[in-house]
Amino acid sequence: MVQFKQQGHWLDNHNVLTGVACGGVLLLVACYFYLGFDGNITGFFRIGSEFPHSPFLDLDRAFIFNGEIGHDGQQFLTVAFDPFLQHPGTLDALDIPSYRYRRILYPLLGYVLAGGNREIIPYVLVALNILAAIGLVRIAALFFRRDRRDRSWMPLMMLCIPGVWFCLLLSTAGLLAACLAIAAHYYYKRKPVLATTLIVLSCLTRETSMLYWGALVFASAVDSHRPQLKSLLVGGILPIAWIGYIASRPDLQRNAALAVNDNFDVPLLGIVQKLQLGLANTFEPKMIYEWLSFGLLFAVFVCLCWLWIFHRDRIKDLRGFAISSLLTVGLFSVCSRTVLGYYLDYNRVFIMAYCLLLLGLVVVPCSSYLARIVPLLFAMSGMSCLIYFALAS
Questions:
Q1: Cα–Cα distance between 334 and 268 in angstroms, integer?
Q2: Any bridge partners for residue 27, and if so which?
Q3: Which of 166, 77, 175, 71 is nearest to 131 (CA)?
Q4: Are residues 236 and 207 in contact, defined by beta-carbon separation less than 8 angstroms?
């Protein structure tokens, strides 16, 4: 592959990759917007007919999926229409208010950037995820920029991650949270204040990003990097305070226990139950894609463990990555069958697992088995995305 070395040139490698990613993402979104949703932007929010709707949603103009309860995008749109809870009907339209409001940044950005105009808010939310998808490729290009080996194409593999497309097409917050968290890992120790700002914003987008905040805090302490550690500790006050505030609001506590009981279980129990269910339905055609998706995710976690166990002598410069990877593996181990039951759910939850694995290859020699297996794994993931697009259309 041709390498563009001249700094500042418009054909500089990471600029080319960003442009390719931008074109690919915009093309797919345009196809869904015009062909899948008949030019109706609310189609990206998977609004069902069976669950209460936001009082600010124009049902006559919205793209409604009849017979469905809706998806997480419907919940984010409800919060974006009324982030300050000015209408009592907003809470009625949320399944678990405390759970939804902990993830405030994505819908709040939609409201603020749209100037409170509810006609524009859906467009802004979709645009944010488009930028996040392109941002993942851009950040990956920055990681691989110093790699002297001919692997400059690898950042584009970020677009092979199924969860990236599922978040984009369902308008959920996982993609933005992952982009912010990966950017925080890149700027860790390079620009302490910026790294802290990014990880704090990620925590306000998705509360599970507190794991990655903790990973960076621990890495800073081990590396004795006091400016970064001090910045992270001060910055962590904001998401912790926000979680505490949400917990203190009695009006937000309806079904609050479900967010924990339904999503987490005894370590490995959810995985075992998932495998048992698969063995009982192995020959059903509808399960083939489900098992392809879960098998790929499971392989990602196996490779992630392989990366940081057998290449641990190379992690000094990526200590935050290593700790974040271990915490992500731990999160996977305690997920319930509810989370692991459906490919649209677990692929969105574990975008970070794919990101950490791909970017971890920066420290892996090209001659290693892992450096050969991971691109193949991502290629298979990309194929699974194409299969999804074909079936969904």
A1: 6
A2: none
A3: 175
A4: no
Q: Which parts of 4-114 fold into alpha helices (H)?
A: 13-31, 72-81, 88-92, 97-102, 105-113
CB 216 within 8 A of CB 228: yes
Helices 319-333, 174-187: inter-axial angle, 10-degree rounding: 150
Q: 374: which 2 tokens?
A: 């991971």
Q: Check: CB of residue 90 under 8 Å from CB of residue 248.
A: no
Of 300 and 279, the structure prediction assigns the larger pLDDT to 300
Q: Output the CA torsion sign for 179, 180, 181, 187.
A: positive
101 neighbors 205 (Cβ within 8 angstroms)? no
Name which of 38, 39, 58 is nearest 47 in CA terms.
58
Q: So where are the chain's domains?
A: 13-392
Q: What is the DSSP letter of 48?
A: E
Are the C-beta atoms of 133 and 168 separated by less than 8 Å? yes
Tell me: the pLDDT tens digits for 46-82?
999 989 999 999 999 999 999 888 889 999 999 999 9
In order of 220, 232, 263, 307, the CA distances from 228 in angstroms are 6, 6, 32, 26
The residues, ordered by sequence, that sit 6+ positions from 227 with a Cβ below 8 Å of its Cβ are: 192
pLDDT-derived band at 108, boundaries 50, 70, 90:
very high
Which residue in the block uniquely carries the two structure tokens 């290593």? 322
Q: Are 73 and 170 in contact (CB under 8 A)?
A: yes
In one letter, which amino acid is 139? I
pLDDT surpasses 60 at 114: yes
What is the Cα–Cα distance from 384 to 378, expressed in whole angstroms? Answer: 10
